[in-house]
Amino acid sequence: MSTTPAPEDRTSALPEIPTPGFADFVAGGERRKAALAHLRIWLRDRGLHTLFGLLPTAATSWLGGEIGRRIGPRLNPKVEERLRRNLVFIEPRLTPADIDAMMATNREHLGRYFAEFAVAHRFLREGRVTILGAEHLDAAQAQGPVIVVGVHTGNFEVLKAILGRRPGSCGDIYAPPDNPVRHRIAREVRLRLGVDPIAPQPDGAWRAMQRLRAGGTVLIFCDEVAENRVVGPFFGRPPHREGNTSRVVRLARDTGALIVPAQVDRLDGCRFTATFSAPLVLSEGLRGSARLDRDIVILNDVVEAMVRRQLAQWYFLDNRMT
Fold first, then answer.
1. Closest listed residue to residue 262, CA positions, set 132, 173, 161
2. How many other C-beta atoms are found inside a 10 Å radius of the C-beta of residue 21?
3. Which of 123, 149, 99 is nearest to 277 (CA)?
4. What whole-number distance in Å separates Cα of residue 184 and Cα of residue 224?
5. Apex CA 261: angle with CA 292 and CA 229, to 5°?
6. CA-to-CA distance for 98 and 313, rounded, in angstroms?
7. Contact (CB, 8 A) for 276 and 306
8. I want to staple 152 with a disulfide (CB 3.0 to 4.6 A). Which of 72, 80, 304, 315 is the partner?
9. Burial bucket for residue 12 (CB in 10 Å: 0-12, 13-18, 19+)
């Protein structure tokens, strides 16, 4: 894979992230409280991110896993119970022992992911990623615009590292964290990985459309959460037109883009496999709303299968299903 210079406009279209500052502290009252709260969050989140970034990659991943495994289950018993219920809802055939093991795996995995955020830019350089199915992505990009559909398993930042090193630029549509400190860190990491962060608002859809119409590539994740509720995949719930699954098929129809599913699996410790599949075949012979609804189901089935395959590594496993 060849490395290309980042586009000149990678940061020009990024919106400012408002944060309380010194003027708010001086103003007193509620503004001062907000400034002090922001400072505490900054010291915690930026401090941990910096610390993890100073350690060797394997040590960072191991430490994060230990924190997740030992502390994660104690943080919120209600969330742990919801995690257990979700596993039963998604895979009713699991035994209690299976569920206990998957919960432990999930907490260790999430701890590793959060710590690895500071070192994800090293993964390819250190040979920690095996890429499978690159020929599918090569062929799709050779013909024109591509929407890479990812899911939040393994360390999904690996997809951004891979796409960021390929010829041309890749737009990364992401959901901004509510925490402004984490938002800044997330944007810094994605830029370092080589992708162009595209926030959904205010003009994210337009920017994605323009990139695709110019023959470019956009990365969109179709397993997602809104207001702490899993919007996709459906997991047997009624299909709907909310969220990224609907947006992807609309974008693909409007621009002629090919949809290439992609997934990252965590192997042992801090090593990964990234798999790109053959382009998705959408419905034929239908029009209007019938075609849209059928396309949504086709894409959801692919996304759901990827999530089920690595359910214990799924980032959203503890969010509400209903």
1. 132
2. 11
3. 149
4. 21
5. 65
6. 14
7. no
8. 315
9. exposed
- Pull the structure tokens for residue 234: 């459906």
On whether the CB atoms of residues 149 and 108 are closer than 8 A, the answer is no
Helix pair angle (180-193, 29-54), 10° resolution: 30
- pLDDT tens for residues 249-271? 999 999 999 999 999 999 989 99
Alpha helices in 2-95 (DSSP H): 22-27, 29-54, 57-75, 77-90
3-state secondary structure of 146: strand
Q: How confident is the model at residue 80 (pLDDT cuts 50, 70, 90)?
A: very high
**Residue 87 pLDDT:** 98
Cα atoms found within 13 Å of the Cα of residue 16, Cβ hemisphere only: 3
Instruction: Please check whether residue 119 is in contact with residue 60, taking contact to mean a CB–CB distance below 8 angstroms.
Output: yes
- Which tokens in the block code for residue 288? 């209007």
State which amino acid sits at residue 314. W
What does the pLDDT average to over 74-100? Answer: 97
**Beta carbons within 10 angstroms of residue 157's beta carbon:** 24
| CA 103 remoteness from chain centre | 20
147 to each of 25, 29, 210, 219, how far by Cα in Å? 45, 48, 13, 6
Residue 287 structure tokens: 């029009």
**Could you give the CA distance from residue 147 to residue 167 in angstroms, rounded to a whole number?**
15
